[in-house]
Amino acid sequence: IPLTIRSRCQHVAFGPLTEEELTRFFRASGLDDDRAARVGMVAQGSIQSALFWLDDGNFTLRQKVADLLLGPKKSFHRITLCSEQLSEDSRKIPMFLYFLLSLFRDLYVLSVTGEMEKVANKDLGDLLRSGDFDRNRILSAIESVHESIRNLRYNVNRMVLIEGLLLRLTR
Questions:
Q1: DSSP string covering 86-97, please?
Q2: pLDDT of residue 117
Q3: How many Å from the N-terminal Cα to the C-terminal Cα in the chain?
Q4: The whole model's pTM is what?
Q5: Contact indicator for 51, 45 with CB cutoff of 8 Å
Q6: Which of 87, 91, 103, 160 has the lowest tally of Cβ within 10 angstroms?
């Protein structure tokens, strides 16, 4: 947008929608109650994010990534398979990186408060409670995800970026 036009524009910021507002929106759009509630819960206030998570493939991969990071079965083979799936489409990567941030935020909140009500990814509650992460490890994981988000801006090999991140997070 040219500076002459931009200087006459006003920036209007909208806050995130509540989980209830998203759920109501998707119910009105024709989704069944369970699916609308599930998408409203994981969308973190964004209709664009909700539309991404409506894709069953993305939602299933979200569960696989959470299992890989927080579950008992960690293997190089599983990391490689998840990395391949995540890096197939460059549009998926930012959404999954922000999911990882929310996942580790939830771990941190649980480690401090112990309250599931304050967790964004409530559907992953069993995995979150079983995680053996100490606070320093959680903060290190959050920094690693932020570093990956920064590196994504450059022309990097997406597969190597995601694989390296998942390897660091599963240590």
A1: HHSSTTHHHHHH
A2: 87
A3: 45
A4: 0.84
A5: no
A6: 91
